[in-house]
Amino acid sequence: ISIAIVLGSAVDRMKFSSWILFTVLWVTFVYAPVCNWAWGGGWMHHIGALDFAGGNVVHINAGVSGLILALMLGKRKGYGKEPMIPSSVAFTALGAGLLWFGWFGFNAGSELAADGVAASAFLVTNTAASMAGLSWLFIEWKISGKPTLLGLASGAIAGLVGITPAAGFVNMPASLIIGAVAGVFGYYSVAILKHKLGYDDSLDAFGVHGMCGIWGALATGLFANPAITEGAAGLFYGNPGQLWTQIVSIIATAVFTAIG
């Protein structure tokens, strides 16, 4: 799924053969090292960085990669002059629903066991996505004057991204906060930040996955609850050092990925 996220930034601007080559190189030299750092006993694991299902490994990694790829390839022909809305809002909604359902396996399955942590991860995945969908919908409604199904779907994905690194470490009330902020964060990144910076990220891989992945990794450092997973405690549970560890892991991932 990580490479599929990167692809969203380059839609309509790469030959298929070039994309296949990029995929092999990216998975080998960008994805695999970060995966090892976080989950393979690497330095992030040793300093205690928390990433339950892929905040650094998947979303920040792929989001930053997508941003760099979009900047290097340049804008699509007609970008900013022609409307480039989804060809089918119905298919967009269907895709969002399929992603939401699949995310239960993505997050809860990362526990690699059928236990209480997996059940908790399943629950908070759903509540964060729901809350983010609503927060994106309402902020879009307030700013643009009308709510949209595309906004609701985008918000849900933003919430799923935000809860990914935290899923096995936080309780349900924390997931509501993580989701609500992710919806606002995602909307700002897609509707405002992208246009201010002027890059053409076709499917908003950086705005949704990169930015909300960063928020999720930070939120893990705030809300990690030792009652959910023993030994994982964030700032609000008496361990301010965890937030700093999360910041170090975010910066390291973003810099390494951008250069790679």
Kindly describe this structure.
This protein is mostly helical and 260 residues long. The protein is 71% helix and 0% strand. The protein is built from 10 helices and no strands. It is globular and about 55 Å long.
Which helices and strands, and how do they pair?
Layout: H1 2-9, H2 16-39, H3 43-47, H4 55-73, H5 89-108, H6 116-144, H7 149-163, H8 172-197, H9 205-223, H10 241-259
Helix pairs in contact: 1-4, 2-4, 4-9, 4-10, 5-6, 5-7, 6-7, 6-8, 7-8, 7-9, 8-9, 9-10
Task: Determine the N-to-C terminus distance.
Answer: 19 Å
Number of alpha- plus pi-helical segments: 10
Give the overall form: globular
What's the pLDDT, averaged over the residues?
A: 95
The class by helix and strand makeup works out as mainly alpha
> Helix proportion of residues, in percent?
over 70%
**Percent of residues in β-strands:** under 5%
| Helix and strand pattern | HHHHHHHHHH
pLDDT < 50 runs, ≥5 residues: none
Largest sheet: none
The tally of strands reads 0
| C-alpha-based Rg, rounded | 18 Å
Concise overview:
The chain has ten helices and no strands. The chain has helices spanning 2-9, 16-39, 43-47, 55-73, 89-108, 116-144, 149-163, 172-197, 205-223, 241-259.
Keywords:
single chain, globular, 260 residues, 0% strand, 71% helix, 10 helices, mainly alpha
